[in-house]
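Hello K.,

You asked for the raw outputs rather than the summary table, so here they are, unedited. I folded two proteins back to back in the same session to keep the settings identical. This is the first:
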Amino acid sequence: MAVAQVFEKLEQNFNADAAQGLDLVFQFDIEDDKTYHLVINDGTCKLHEGPNDDPSVTLIMNSETLQGIVSGETDGMQAFMAGQLRAEGDMMLATKLGELFKMG
């Protein structure tokens, strides 16, 4: 699955109820592809290609790790501990991804 398709799937599996009152930007630097960011704003989610000027958190990984996490085959925390996933900014926000998006 192409990286763009992975992000489309994420956007389709967005849990608007969990995002009520939130105003966040999740940036994904995909090392072997492009940078994307998801803007979460009070129950809405919009996908954008390219970097954001002020992301809340930036997750850095390769496309294989991204696909594993979105499909549910890879646990995000395990990927982080194994060095396959790095985070910059508010790392605690990365733990919210599982609430905001239905993985697997």
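The second followed immediately with the same parameters:
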Amino acid sequence: MAKKKVDDPRKIVANNKKARHDYVIEDVFEAGLVLSGTEVKALRMGRASLTDGYAAIDRGEAWLENVHIPAYFQGTWNNHAPRRRRKLLLHREEIARLESKSREKGHTLIPLSLYFLDGRAKVEIALARGKKEYDKRQTLREQQDMREAQRAIRHKEMLG
């Protein structure tokens, strides 16, 4: 597992931990988000869930759907809806490329992480292909074998 960089300027709010288990990640994009004020405040408190979220391209615009940002508890009557559609800010060429790739069989757009970068909310979306059940088992087996090999190497180094 890769260690977090010390000089990483991102303040991570939410990660989609199951994404790498359920999907094969083919390409990753960083997109800005169009948010309301109470959504930003709720995110700054570290509250969000990406588990059921996905991105979709609709009439040349990218949208983040089904991502849960809970209502800001100090908000008033103008609080946001927790699972509303949120517009993604991407370049036109990126949207066109994502649209053509996501139409291929088995491909989807999923959010990997939600974070702040220089005070702006960003989401990392991935073009992904769903794994079959046997692929998931194979990946788990490879990870377990790698862990056992690392453990054996450490044990051998300790003994001399």
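The chain has a mean pLDDT of 83.

Happy to rerun anything if the numbers look odd on your end.

Regards,
P.
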